[in-house]
Amino acid sequence: MPEHLLSISELNAWYGESHILHGVGMTVARGELVTLLGRNGAGKTTILKSIMGLVGRRSGSVQLEGRETVGLPTHRIARLGIGYCPEERGIFSSLSVEENLLLPPAMKAGGMSLEEIYEMFPNLLERRNSVGTRLSGGEQQMLAMARILRTGADLLLLDEVTEGLAPVIVQALGRLIARLKERGYTIVLVEQNFRFAAELADRHYIIEHGHVADTVTLDEVGARAETFSRYLGV
Amino acid sequence: MEITLQAVLAQVMLGLNNGVFYALLSLGLAVIFGLLNIVNFAHGALYMLGAFVALLGYSYLGPLIGMPDFQMNYWAALVVVPLVVGGLGILLERTLLRRLYKVDHLYGLLLTFGVALIIQGFFTNYFNVSGTPYDAKPEILNGVVNLGFMVFPKYRLWAIVVSLAVCFGTWFVIERTKLGAYLRAGTENPDLVRAFGINVPLMVTLTYGYGVALAAFAGVVAAPIYSVSPVMGAEMIIVVFAVVVIGGMGSIMGAIVSGLLLGMVEGLTKVVYPPASGTVIFLIMVLVLLVKPAGLFGREN
Which tens digit of pLDDT belongs to each residue from B272-292? Predict the structure, then answer.
C-alpha cells in the first residue's frame, strides 16, 4: 500500500447555487502522476480548484499527507506544499518574467534554484526582463510551470497545460513533465489531450458529471480503449 | 492685465503645493481601488480626521489625560496620526468593508460615503465649520525662503518636499520591490496569489490601512496651511476624484503625476483667468473622459 500524499473522499463543491462536484473520491500516491480526463464541463478544473479551496463552498474531505484541508484558507493549503498551475496560466501582466518567477514564496526546502530553472528553461532567462504576458503562449505555459518549481511544493496541480499550443511545444511539455516525475514530484494533470496524457500517467481518473466515473491504470490502457472512447470520444 | 513670469511661477509653486495634497490623496485612492475594488468615498473625511487628530493631540489631549502641559508636537503628529487613523482604517476594513467584496462596487462606495458623513457630522457637532487654526508649526519651518524668482513660505516648501518623498517612496515600493509585486499581482488575480500561499485578506487589510494612513498624513501636513475644519475633506475629495478619473483609476504613477500637474494647472488658471480656477480641473476631467475614458495613465480593458 503506497503512502497517499493526497486523498480525497466525498468531495462536494458549489459555485453559488450550482452544485458542481458530487462526491468525488480519489487518491494520489507520492511520486505518482495521475490524470483527470473528461469532457468540457465535467468538473476536472473544479476538482483542482476545490483542492486549493478556490471554490465558493466545499464539503467532504481533502487530506494532504493525512492533514485535513477542508476548512483551511487557500494560502494555508498552498503552504502545505502544493504548486498550482491554472488553466488560464495566470501570468501577471504587471510583472516582468523574473518577477512572475519569483512571486510564489518558498514554502518548503528542496525547491529548485533560479539557476536550475533558467537552465531548464533557457528562453525565460533570455526574456527575464520582458513583461510576462508578452511571451508566446508556449513560453507563458513554461513560465507558469517554472514558477511553482521554486517553492519546494511536492504536489503539482497542472490544469490543461497543452491547451492551444503547437504540437512541437506540446512534445516539449511532455518531456518536461516526464522529467519532473523523475525528480520525484507528485503530479495531478487535468487534460483534454488523451494521447498526451496516456504516455505520461500512471493512472487515469475519468471524470463525468462532477464525479469519478472510472479509473484506468497504465497497464489497462491498451485493453480498455472502449472505456476511453465511451467517455471521451477518442 | 499684464501677466508677468514672476506671477506665473508664484502661482505654479502655490499650485504645486495644492497638487501634492491631490497627489497624496489620489495615490491612496488608487492603491485602495486597485486591490479592494472599492471607491473609498471616506478618503476626504479620513484626511480631515488626520488634521483633527493632530489638532486634538496638540490642543486637547494634555488636559484630557490630566497633563495640562502635554502637547503632541508636529513631528510626533507626522508619525503618530497616520498610525492612529490607519489603525482606524484597518478596523473599518475588518468590520465593515470586508462584508462587501462579493457584491457590486457600488455598495462599497455607498458604505464609505456613509462613513464619511458620520465622521464629518461628528466633528461638525463639536467644532467650528469655519475652521480652527493648528499652531503646532515647528519653529524651524517658520519664515520664508528666497527661491530666486519668489519668496516662498518655508513650511509650504517643506510640505511639497515631504509629500513628494512619500509619494515617490510609495511608488518605488509598489513598482520596484517584492512586496509591491505581491500587491500588483493581487490587484490582477487575487485568487491565484492566494493559491501561491500568500495571505491576501491580510494584504488587503494592510493596504487599506496604508491608503488611509496616507490620507491622514496629508491631513497633518495640510493642517498648518489651511485651518482645520470638519468640511475640509468634503471640499477636497471632489477635486481628488476628478484627479483620479483624469489620471486613470488604479494607476499609481497616474495618480501622482496628475495630482501634481492639476494642482499647477489650477494655479496657472488663477493667473490667466481667476474665476475659472475652481472649475478648470472638472473641465479637463470632462475632456479626458470624452477622449480617453480610461484616464491618461489608465489601461483600457
Answer: 999 999 999 999 999 999 999
Domain borders along chain A are: 30-42+80-232
Taking the C-alpha atoms of residue B107 and residue B250, their distance in angstroms, rounded to an integer, is: 18
Best probe of the B interface among A79, A101, A103, A148, by most B CBs < 10 A, is A103
Cα separation of A24 and A8, whole Å?
7
Confidence of residue A193 (pLDDT cuts 50, 70, 90): confident
pLDDT tens-place string over residues A82-128: 999 999 999 999 999 999 999 999 998 889 999 999 999 999 999 99
Res A228 pLDDT > 90 = no
Torsion of CA B45, B48, B53, B58, to 10 degrees: -170
Domains of chain B: 5-291 (1.10.3470)
User: B68 in helix, strand or coil?
Assistant: coil
Structurally, what CATH architecture does the domain formed by A30-42+80-232 represent?
3-Layer(aba) Sandwich (3.40)
Average pLDDT of span B7-34: 94
B chain contacts of residue A78, beta-carbon cutoff 8 Å? 194-197
Q: Provide the Cα torsion A10, A14, A18, A23; round to 10°.
A: -10
Residue pairs spanning A and B at CB distance below 8 A: 59
How far is A63 from A71, CA to CA, in rounded Å?
A: 11
Please write the tens of the pLDDT for every residue from B110-127: 999 999 999 999 999 999
Q: What's the CA angle centered on A207, arms A206 and A209, to 5 degrees?
A: 145
Residues B177 and A60: beta-carbon distance below 8 Å:
no
